[in-house]
TrEMBL record:
Name of the protein in question: M50 family metallopeptidase
Alphabetically ordered keywords of this record: Membrane, Transmembrane, Transmembrane helix
Domain of life of the native organism: Bacteria
Record field: transmembrane: 75-97, 104-120, 126-143, 150-167, 200-223
UniProt cross-references to InterPro entries, sorted A to Z: Peptidase_M50B-like
Length: 232
């Protein structure tokens, strides 16, 4: 079996272990949170809002603060962008891996993390971004092409799977709070419900469809190298 095909097999297994194992997920989930808050931040900038700051917490939650109109399309897009972001970044990563642009992916990741660092406003957040950026930067600087490809493929799978798990946790967390009588929830889905009049479960469903679609398409791309084996 060629090294490239071996990498194609190993990468999703590594990512699946990181996402499925509770202890590993609690450690690695911060990377999904960084992508989530980055989605909010990019959407805020694109819609003309002033980005004030990002905070990342040790419980893997986060918050992005932007200044602008409290209602309207800009606020809706900013509130919406968080949960789809990890899956869509994973989809972009999958395409770059498939097209053999792994070094582009790695250095783009470093630049994104540096830009994020400028807006982080708490100590844990700074440490989380620095550690994540250090890992990505070390692979970009010191890695040879095969390890870089394996790392990038595993990263793409992790974001695709992790984005879906994050949405599942959102749904489970909302159900848990509602069963305990809470009615004023503050998740992204509930904020979107207040902004648009559409129920929060609708937005959870949209997040789920985006994450599932990205996983199916990204997985199809990433597993493409196995086609010669399957056709033998």
């Amino acid at each position: 079996m060629a090294a490239q095909q071996l990498s194609t097999l190993v990468a999703p297994l590594v990512a699946l272990v990181l996402v499925a194992h509770g202890g590993l997920w609690r450690i690695c989930r911060t990377a999904v949170t960084i992508a989530h808050e980055g989605g909010h931040a990019i959407a805020a900038v694109l819609t003309g809002r002033r980005l004030s700051g990002i905070r990342l917490h040790s419980d893997t939650s986060g918050v992005t603060v932007s200044v602008g109109r409290t209602r309207g399309p800009g606020m809706v897009f900013t509130s919406f962008a968080g949960y789809p972001a990890p899956a869509l970044v994973g989809l972009l990563a999958a395409w770059l891996v498939t097209e053999r642009f792994t070094r582009v992916l790695l250095w783009a990741g470093v630049l994104f993390l540096l830009a994020t660092l400028v807006y982080v406003r708490n100590v844990f957040g700074v440490l989380a971004v620095l550690v994540t950026g250090g890992i990505v930067g070390a692979v970009a600087w010191y890695g040879s092409p095969p390890p870089q490809r394996l790392f990038c493929a595993a990263l793409a799978w992790f974001l695709l799977l992790g984005g879906l798990r994050a949405v599942r946790e959102l749904a489970a967390g909302r159900r848990w709070q509602l069963r305990r009588g809470r009615r004023e929830l503050d998740s992204d889905a509930d904020q979107l419900a207040r902004l648009t009049g559409l129920p929060a479960w609708f937005w959870v469903g949209v997040f789920t469809l985006v994450a599932l679609g990205a996983l199916v398409l990204g997985g199809w791309w990433l597993l493409g190298d196995l086609a010669p084996l399957l056709l033998r």
